[in-house]
Each structure stands twice: as C-alpha cells, then as structure tokens.
Amino acid sequence: AQKITQTQPGMFVQEKEAVTLDCTYDTSDQSYGLFWYKQPSSGEMIFLIYQGSYDEQNATEGRYSLNFQKARKSANLVISASQLGDSAMYFCAMREAYSGAGSYQLTFGKGTKLSVIP
Amino acid sequence: GAVVSQHPSWVICKSGTSVKIECRSLDFQATTMFWYRQFPKQSLMLMATSNEGSKATYEQGVEKDKFLINHASLTLSTLTVTSAHPEDSSFYICSASRGGIQPQHFGDGTRLSIL
User: Fold this and answer.
1) Least CA distance to A97: which residue of chain B?
2) β-bridge partners, B67
3) CB contacts < 8 Å between A and B, how many?
C-alpha cells in the first residue's frame, strides 16, 4: 500500500489565484514529519514547508501553507497568489520513525504537476 | 544555510563504462547521505542510505555490486554506477542530513545517459 498518495497528476491554476495540492498519508507511527518539495524542470528538489505530527498549528512559509488534518491523515499544500514561476512538480513526503538504517528516511508521493496559466 | 553540491550534473557515456557521481555537503557535516533515482515523470525512489564510515544500506531490489556507494568523510559520498547499461539511464539525486531527525538537503541531481 502506498504510504503517500497524491491523487492529482496535474493541476492548472490561473496566475494570482490560490491552489491546493492534495496529499494523504498512511502511517501507524505517532511521531512523523510531512514535507513538501518543489521540483522545477531543471531537476533540483526545493524544500518548501514542513509539518510535524505534534505541531498543533498549520505550518506556513510565505505563500505556502500546509492544511494539516491529522484525523484524516491529510497534509494538503496551499499556494496563494500563484506565480508563473510556481509551475513545477510538487512532491509530498513523509518521514517516519527511525528506520534502523541510521537515519530517518523520506517516502515520496508520485507528485503533482502544477501549471500556472498567465 | 545547508548547501549540497552534486557533480557532474550531466553525463553521457558508452555502455560498459563506470560512472562516479559525487555528493558534497559544503557547509555542514553530513552524518547521513541518501541516494535516489528518478525516472521521467516519476517520483524519487530511495536506492540506499549511507552513513559516514560504514557500509551503505541498500533498498530492496537495488544491486549493491552495481551501485557502489562510499561515504568516507562527513562531507562526501560517492555513487559509482559500474558497467553502466542503457537501462541505468536515469536522474540520480543525493541528499545529505546532519543525522537523526535533521532535514535532508538535496543536491541538484545528475542526469545519466548511457548510449
């Protein structure tokens, strides 16, 4: 079973509008972390935002906010005031408890391709 | 900041050659480094986790003898694709962490094309 599910392969949004990218996760751990990364066509992975499982407040970073609904196991990314430069792949990722391999591994979703329309 | 440099960014080589990719943490000591592979329009798949001074832990299905990982120092890990074949063509990306729950910082990736 997938641990991270991103149900939207592609999304379109008008410039200056807000957009929500969906992410649901599956874990039995009590302590975990959720991340969102942006990957432009050039390939680099750009960290956007982080939410810890014990954080009571939704994380925000500039135009990015994370709508964390723990009971639903969802961690949707909201981008406000979309810009043309926001066009990219967006990946949701989860870090669970210690993996035994020496550190905490990330599991990535399949990604959502966001296209911002002028 | 936490800068990770990955080199080379692009490699094209003939089938049968070995290719080495370097991952360096420039401004922090990386206890742990991770190597991922990404096929076009797909997600990142973890290949192995590498801790400084010890053998890498490979994910299921990843050939240890094919993808040699060395993490000899706290700032450098290398991935060597041995006797590369066209099916090894992919985007390889590393990340580095100070360890524990510290976040992973990614390099810019290496596009490998085997002819």
Assistant:
1) B101
2) B81
3) 63
